[in-house]
Amino acid sequence: MGSRGQPQESRAAILRAAAKEFAEHGIAGARTDAIAHEAKVNKALLYYYFKDKETLYGAVLDNAFSGMKTTVFTVLDSDLPSREKIMAYVGAYFDFIASNQIYPKLMQREMMRAREGDSLHIDRLVRTYFQPIYRRVGELLHKGIAEGEFRKVDPAHFVPSMVAMIVFYFSSAPVMQRIVHFNPLAPPRVAERRAAVLDFISSALFLPRPSAALSFRKSGVRK
């Protein structure tokens, strides 16, 4: 069983186990006994790190969304051109969710909790994670539009549409499997979905670049 002599390992194990339990059952239905058992720690140690279930739930959300923010900011802080950067952002976001497939469930449960006015964490999550990411992606979209690379889109609609294309695929997988009669979460299908998302977003956002011939004509140079 985990001990206080292994604080980082024990805390990380608790967060992993708690994320699974909260994603599956929500905070109301989650059991700390099940979390402690899954994390291979005693229940007293769980409460040593987290004073109550609500505190643990908040830590799970912070752990999930801080990882997401770090992942996408690595791309957004890069010097890539606008087209490459938006595609790299989408790819990084997709890969993060694909590698953490319980996170869409956590997101959905927290959004429902916020809608009902029961969330103690939503304001912090918005301020710390959602707004900074939205702001940076919005700036990137405006930059690409000004450069003539992107169509004129409204970030308030385009950004959540990009996110939804990724998150909904994973959260709806059990239903989709019944519709399409294959496992949408099998690695080859996830790879196909990634390619489809990138293709869809680039087609919806990118303006065609002038052909070489048109460039010659505009510059007054004849072939």
Distance between the termini: 76 Å
Largest sheet: none
Q: What string gives the helices and strands in order? A: HHHHHHHHHHH
* Beta strand %: under 5%
> Mind telling me the C-alpha Rg?
22 Å
Residue-averaged pLDDT, rounded?
Answer: 90
Total number of beta strands: 0
Report low-confidence residues grouped into runs of 5 or more: none
| Inertia-based shape | globular
Overall helicity: over 70%
**Structural class of the helices, strands and pairings?**
mainly alpha
Contiguous helical run count: 11
Which characteristics define this entry?
single chain, 223 residues, mainly alpha, 11 helices, 0% strand
Ordered list of secondary-structure elements with their pairings:
Blueprint: H1 7-29, H2 32-39, H3 43-49, H4 53-76, H5 82-99, H6 103-115, H7 122-146, H8 155-171, H9 173-180, H10 187-205, H11 212-219
Structure described in brief:
By secondary structure, this protein is an all-alpha fold. The chain contains 11 helices and no strands.
Structure description:
With 223 residues, the protein is mostly helical. The chain has eleven helices and no strands. Helix 1 packs across helix 6 and helix 5 runs parallel beside helix 8. The longest helix has 25 residues. The protein is globular, with a radius of gyration of 22 Å. The N and C termini lie far apart (76 Å). The relative contact order is 0.09. The mean pLDDT is 90.
